[in-house]
Structures
1.
Amino acid sequence: MTSNLLSVDEAVMGPSASPWLGPLTLEVGRGEIVALLGPNGAGKSSLLRGIMGLIPFSGGQVCWERKPVLIDRPSKMAKLGVGYVPEGRRVFPGLSAEENLLSVFDGPRAEANARVQEMWSLFPELLARRRSEAWRLSGGEQQMLAIGRALMRQPKLVMLDEPSLGLAPMAVGRTFQAIEKLKARGIAILLSEQNTHHALEIADRVIIIRSGQIIASGAPKMFTNPDVIARLYLDE
Amino acid sequence: MLGSGYGVLALGFALTLRAAGAVNFAHGDVATMAAYGGVVAAAFGATGVMAITAAAFLGGVLGLIVAIITWAPLRRRPVEATFIAAIALGIVAQNSLTVGFGGAPRALPAIVDGGWHIAGVYLSAHGALSLVVAIAAFIGVATLLLRTRTGLRLRAAAEDPEIAAAHGLPVIGLAIFAFLLAGALAGLAGAILSNQHYVTPTVGAIYILKAYIAATAAGWGRILPTALVAVGIALFETIGAALVSQAAAEGALYLAFLALLAFRPEGLAGDIQGRRV
Amino acid sequence: MSAYDLHLLTLAGALASAAIGWQIVFGLSGALSLAAGTAMGLGAYAAVLLPLNLDLPYAAALPAAGALSGLALGCVALAAARLETHYFALATLAVAEAVLLLATNWESVTGGANGILGKSPPHWLIADEARALSALSATIIAILIYYSFKHFIGQERLALLRTQPLAAKAFGVNGAKTRLLAMIAGGICGGLGGAIHALAVGVVSPDVLQFKTMAAILAVVLIGGRRSPVAAVIASILVTFGPEYLRFLEDSYLIVYGLLLLATILFLPNGIAALFPKLSAVRFHKKQLTKVPVPYRTLLRSVNLKRSFGGLSAVDGVSLNLHKGEIVGLIGPNGAGKSTLLNLLSGLEHPDAGKIELAPGVRIGRTFQTPALIEEETVGANLAITGYPSQDQTLVKSLSQSERRFLELTRAREYANGLVLLDEPAAGLAPNERTRLAEEIRNIAAKSAVVVVEHNVPFVASIANRLVCLAEGRVIADGEPKEIVRDPAVVAAYLGVAIDLGADR
């Protein structure tokens, strides 16, 4: 499989005779937004966690920039240039917003501060709250922070796991605006969502996963009629 | 003086609690061993700052050993395995000390001799030095944690090791560093406490209990509050001992702790995420 | 045998009794108590003080010592009933230190730090052989108490309580009560051990309440094995006689002992007993569960259930009735409250408001999102709690994920009488396995009601005769599967379009 950024080749989780995830094959190219849609429990989260090295694949291969990667620890993909925004945001609660950003950066102080300034310009709502402890932030603010944190290492690809989960509708809107800004900067995005509405609006490509298998994929306009997706989610 | 000792000890304990998620039962014994180490150092003629440094160094090394033996291999086993391993390591430590130094209680020589009379109260040089050391330790640890990059990463890794790793942080290395630092703090505590109070090889258990009490009362591992509560405990004990008796003060302490557990397990300051180990 | 050897044997017996007592608390019930040494110490003090102050004959004092210790630990258990592992251990440690303080300072009663000399024992207890014999008796009594406790509560229930406390609750095991009983039983054994110890030594001092007693008990149980009284006896003998036969090491023996302990933890976590698997193999006997057919049609009635966590409402006014023969699919997007509702119905959580009524004779069996099985035991052992006659010796940890799900399903089915609740049973199953699951669910529903929480809507729609959709803690649809999957509100909930904004077309 050739792709210029991330490619997942026949990835499998579970016993080879009857895997519960896969075999899955997909790819993400430079600068494109790929949306993974599907009902809960379909395996979207597990796939992202597998790519990030948080849970193991039992088969298949992940390639980064056309070279195969052995994912033996979570920091591997992070160091190669993959950012991760986990399900439920999981910001570091006891650290301030600013500290959340600084804690994941590896490099000279001056550069760290420069990047933090960048984040504030990207997410102006956070600037006022930069010294607040992260657990005090609202859901939407935490989501911004989690995205900012993933951006600190200047990744080429950012994976977001259900960013709209648990957020009020307005916060969801702002979150997707933020994701659009990422796209504008040329960062590739792999997005898993249960909320199809927003995801369809910004994705370049859509992949539908159900029960651990890809059952459909294509351009977003193929799926904009809610009936189509509803049938895919709810019917046999 | 007691406050300084307890405070520093509790600081170290809370450190491993938060940073490594480990309830380090052997912490008290590390302090004890380091204290005896200080004795040995003193016997070789080291005085004052040198002796304290030696104790801290020894403590750090011991902390590392604790991490390697009890924490690293047992991370994946159920939580009590580490707990019991730490207790066992403590037993080893206690027995070694008994073998080396005998089981009788000892008051180890002060790190620094002499003292002054100020306004009718005797202030020992040892006590004064202890206070200085403790304050330095507090400030040092606080600065490390709050203002340095390493401290920041330590705190991040402590809050959410999985996500910290997913952002490239060397979580295991940081945890081991926490053990080392905690060990050094225990060493300092040992050196401080060794003069004022009779030390026996088994006193580690009592130290750890009080550190535990401080950590629980302060909300399970909020680092600085734990240290402050520990100082509070020391004050309580000192005042109680002067007013009634040492025993009564300690007894009251334990009863208060049991009451706290019964009615308000989250502690006085409250835990940030309500997360309990 | 020399007099000294007999003396050591007596001490070993005392230690063994106390260790077996701790095996009841920690090994069988999984409670990390650090007060075992205190039980022993209390027994020792009682054995000395009762004859001295109350003129109680030794024959009565020894058992009384056991009883008093049992009572004391029982009180501790009551006080610490709601605490989890670490806090429980801490609480017991605090009690231990407090008792030590008391003994050291209450000079008028306990003789303070110097202790008290015991009254001369009666003539029949003076000979070394007699004392060794009494130690043996105490040990035998401890072993009897151990096995009585084990059979009274039930081995399978204890195993479940130890490894899966939440599931244990769902299968009718009362954790707090079990722990209380365990602490009383363990306390009695410890007290007996302490009494024998005091008898052997002739004097009691706060020394016996020091942490080192607890450490010795800990060592014995670690070396011997958590659930093997016989191994505990062997270990006690090793630990007591060891120093004598390692005399050439002199004082360093203690260090060797400590290191051996550490090595045991790292390499032989289940003690010596693990070296003899055949002997220590657990034989679960089956308890018969009553399964009386329930004559009512409505098996469960619930009205206006509410449950919130920290200000967020998980279940917000759900009324649900379940009837015999129904397969009810419970669906809804993430965070809709399905798991919480299941916990409320199965009794694992209490509603903040509303009530639940079960028809008389109904017993609920359930499964969990991650199979809550006893990993180290066999399939047969896991099913023992239901009375199902399985001789299957396959270890659960060698089973695949899907085999585990089916095992858990069997356990729930066999345990239940009338109502089975399944939490995402299809997750992680391959298509052919889902077919088998569907069949099994239909079989269960022939005589009961089944509730299936699922994310895989097509699957559950194909087997259910009723579909209930939850969103944001409320029921938004309830009816025939064919209609529910086309219900606009349900579609909107799943696709994430805000319900009050209406579908965006």
2.
Amino acid sequence: MQREGSALHGLGVVILKELSDHLTSTRMRVLEWLVVVVGILAVYGAIQQIKDTTAEDPFLFLKLFTTSRESVPFTFVALLSILVPVISVGMAFDSVNGEHNRRTLSRILSQPIYRDALLFGKFLAGLFTLSVSLIALWLLVIGLGLFLLGLPPSGEELTRAFIFLLVTIAYAGVWLALAMLFSIIFRSPATVALVSLGLWFLTLIWPMLAPAIAIAFTPSSDEETLILAAQYLSRLSPSTLYGEVVLAVLNPTTRSLGPMYLSQLQGAVLGAPMPLGESLIIAWPQIVGLIASTILLFVLGYVIFQRQEVRA
Amino acid sequence: MSADNVIEAQGLTKRYNGVAVVKGISFSVARGEIFGLLGPNGAGKTTTILMLLGLSDISEGQARVLGHDPEREPLAVKRLVGYLPDQVGFYDNLTASDNLRYTARLMGLERDEREEKIASSLDHVGLGDVADRPVDTFSRGMRQRLGLAEILMKEAQIAILDEPTSGLDPQATAELLQIIRNLKNRKVSVLLSSHLLDRVQSICDRVALFNEGNIALLGTVGELGRQVLGVGYYVDLEAEGQGIAEKLRALPGVKSVEVAGANHVRIYAERDVRPEAAAVVAAGGRLLRLSVETPSLEMIYTRYFENVSGGRHAA
């Protein structure tokens, strides 16, 4: 049945309202500080390590993101892949059920807007807030790098770092959409937080779990099959996808994200950097995977929300 | 369809998983009328309201709100109709005026118009002084009034109020009812649902009595009284004189006369028979007191549900 009027009427108003909620909330401030402090620590560690050990590297600047001091085992990238889900979940775990529980939902929906505008607005405002924090953090790292390393990044380094930023935002989008989906399904914000963080914890141990599951459920005992099965399984986790993209983008010598045959390496100059385009092609399936899962999770939530009864 | 009806419902039906909770109800609300939906909780009042607003799909039948189909043109309906949900909620961290500002933006009001309307509607419901206080300091009554301020700000042609007075103390209820009466004076039609019967009776022009998804009775309180109790008016009469009761029984329209005490009779009548009764008394005695009551909605409601459940026991 055709409905009159645009489904996105009132979207801008919802986005502005949600943004101002996010940016003034205590929750957001705590999470931001957490990221900034941890980020600075990781980068500072990386710089110390680079100063001590690296003599020459064409992509020195990118090492900021991927190096850590031996005493602190977390690189900036690893920290982001752990912290970004927590922040995203923190932004969205009470987004829809919060409206239900405050009994504001039916009042807002009785204004001349469709539900679409409310849901899109909430998602986009969340993503925008996350983007602002991540961009700020990214600039902070680059600034620190300039200041402490004392050498400017090359054009390609900046491009790669920028792609890394975009991919991180997409990764945040996956978790935001997931938490939002749960906030549509479950009426209690505590349940949403627990379920989302449970899944987050699962992604932490998933790299260890996937090979075990592959061995248990793969009928063939052929080693190649097992490795491939484990890899496909582990790629179900957005953290794995994110890690692989980051590896390809920030480490230009990466040639493949899967197992390689010796024959494939014939004639390759090992340790030689790949051009940017090639690195992107290597990581393209993973990038698409991240964006696609965001869209998929959002659409699932959208469908459920449209069919849900408004009454409390 | 009559041109003067703002809401028309024809065979409106709602099913959840095959179970009908609203079973083909039909009613209409005239312009400027206060129409009450009454009935126990779970009788289908809120579901009916949500269908009229386009917030819930209509399983069968059709509705017209100011000539618009709430399923196909929900935005047009929601532009013209103000809705106060049961136990309305606001964003507690925002002030009263900020809460209204958000909905005013959603309504698409321009800035100057918006600020002016927010201020005037808050003043109208008596919240002008606390406009800049966060809503979490507000009492139930103040929240309900803020909800009405939103409807005023919208300049809605129809106000749909779901249980507006439930959980309010008597004074807050009185204030709220006064605001609802003012809505009527502004030519706003009001559709309200309630299970607080005496309050509803005092402001409703017509009521529909819901029972398990059906409209069991529909009409003015007097009409319902005639349908359920068989009478429309109780006239209480105290007078000195001989044989008054017999003379009263002979009056046209009088159903029965009950002698309640010395010099005190109760007349059950189809219409207001006070003038005739006064004339009868004046012919042979002295009138001490004469008063008329329509049967209370409470009485009708209780009797109706007694009849319904009594019938079920018999079956």
